[in-house]
Amino acid sequence: MCPIATCLVKQCNHTWINRLSDAKNSPIYPKGQFVFMEGSLVLGAYFILKGKVKVISSNVGGKEQTVRLAGEGHMLGHSAIGLEKYSIGAVTLEESQICFIDNATLYEAFMANPKFTFEVMRFYSRELRKSEIRTKCLGLMNNEEKVILGLLYLADTYLLGSQGNQVEIDLNRQEIAQIIGTNAEQVSRVLTSLKKEGLIQTVDRTIQLPDITTLKERIRQYAYATSY
Amino acid sequence: MCPIATCLVKQCNHTWINRLSDAKNSPIYPKGQFVFMEGSLVLGAYFILKGKVKVISSNVGGKEQTVRLAGEGHMLGHSAIGLEKYSIGAVTLEESQICFIDNATLYEAFMANPKFTFEVMRFYSRELRKSEIRTKCLGLMNNEEKVILGLLYLADTYLLGSQGNQVEIDLNRQEIAQIIGTNAEQVSRVLTSLKKEGLIQTVDRTIQLPDITTLKERIRQYAYATSY
DNA sequence: CTAATAGCCTGCGAAAATGCAGGCTTTTTT
DNA sequence: AAAAAAGCCTGCATTTTCGCAGGCTATTAG
């Protein structure tokens, strides 16, 4: 039985929770694995049971942009009815367990469970709002502000509960750059500067954020907020 | 009776279509009017019956970014249950008629009409995908490409049917700049250059796109497509 | 008709971002 | 343990973007 209380599927009635539980499969993906690739057909929806995923989109030249970060309880795959090709991919950032439910079953579940459909709708609505605020930020911010935005976005998405402000980020410079639409060198420069100010620490490969409050203060003028 | 066949409300059964028809009000907003303002409470959802709307978000300094364009049949307001403050506003680009339905009524409609909820969910899902592809483009494109993206975004959103490739855009340079995260001068420069190439025409205040195909070709490497 | 205003275009210097290169450190492989 | 590879930092030259300023045009107001 699935232990994730926040999983959207939990909005179904008991009969359907069991039926979806039977219909799903839940493979474990190693770090760096594609959950689905750009240009592939979407045959159903993915629910993250455990782990971290980035949603990406690339141009033909191979340049890649991370368009969304997703964690436990999040939904992937833009559940489509009918087959849609679709120019977005998803890659695990660490070992992750991800449930898959096919479109036909999902559609039946939507028709039989209004609350489930409603909560999925709300999920997309919230993600859209987050994406739009991101659009604003990426459109108006300079490089340093974007790097701070990226760090806070990672923190917001992957800080579990309120266990202090300690967030560890285990991505390389290139991957951080792709979240905010810049390049590895710029990220390096800004991180160095933030380190000198004591706003971040680096331990081994990971970046730690001991003072999230001050970081947020830095980009306050964009009305960036943890909860959207 | 509402004449918009694509309106999402049409997914409800007849009883509910009538009930929502009674519950809604449908004011006509003049050009340049706020439908709702940034920071206001969201008390329900808006359905565009006729007209064009931009969804905006600003920073404290007053710089404004257009995060989404919406036209006939589109939904605004991120229907929320409960009251949520929310840092996004909407402004008409021309005289527009927009229906409003309050959250309580909407919630009942969602619970009673699975197909309605499902289609609203799909609407948000599609808009999210569009927003994410926009994130990619704004992250990877240079200025000229962004301007072309902006023109095509306007064309896609407001080209009604397939009446040739004639699209008229009646925004000033500043407003175009805010769609793509740049400034009026840059837009001016790119438009001049595109005009010299014969890819756009300006007649009075409006920009015409006589050759959408070639414009799309210009940014093909970003896999930008009319239908997402 | 004239004046005033708003929008538009474009040159130019300043600022920011980019991307290469070289040196360093860390991790992985052999 | 040594070698190879990958990642990281930073200086520098180049390119791009920014934003002011001035002149032009079109629209609106008087």
TrEMBL record, chains A, B:
<dbReference type="GO" id="GO:0003700">
    <property type="term" value="F:DNA-binding transcription factor activity"/>
</dbReference>
<dbReference type="InterPro" id="IPR014710">
    <property type="entry name" value="RmlC-like_jellyroll"/>
</dbReference>
<protein>
    <submittedName>
        <fullName>Fumarate and nitrate reduction regulatory protein</fullName>
    </submittedName>
</protein>
<dbReference type="Pfam" id="PF13545">
    <property type="entry name" value="HTH_Crp_2"/>
</dbReference>
<keyword id="KW-0804">Transcription</keyword>
<dbReference type="Pfam" id="PF00027">
    <property type="entry name" value="cNMP_binding"/>
</dbReference>
<feature type="domain" description="HTH crp-type">
    <location>
        <begin position="141"/>
        <end position="213"/>
    </location>
</feature>
<dbReference type="InterPro" id="IPR036390">
    <property type="entry name" value="WH_DNA-bd_sf"/>
</dbReference>
<dbReference type="InterPro" id="IPR050397">
    <property type="entry name" value="Env_Response_Regulators"/>
</dbReference>
<feature type="domain" description="Cyclic nucleotide-binding">
    <location>
        <begin position="8"/>
        <end position="81"/>
    </location>
</feature>
<dbReference type="GO" id="GO:0005829">
    <property type="term" value="C:cytosol"/>
</dbReference>
<dbReference type="InterPro" id="IPR036388">
    <property type="entry name" value="WH-like_DNA-bd_sf"/>
</dbReference>
<dbReference type="GO" id="GO:0003677">
    <property type="term" value="F:DNA binding"/>
</dbReference>
<keyword id="KW-0805">Transcription regulation</keyword>
<dbReference type="InterPro" id="IPR000595">
    <property type="entry name" value="cNMP-bd_dom"/>
</dbReference>
<dbReference type="InterPro" id="IPR012318">
    <property type="entry name" value="HTH_CRP"/>
</dbReference>
<dbReference type="InterPro" id="IPR018490">
    <property type="entry name" value="cNMP-bd_dom_sf"/>
</dbReference>
<keyword id="KW-0238">DNA-binding</keyword>
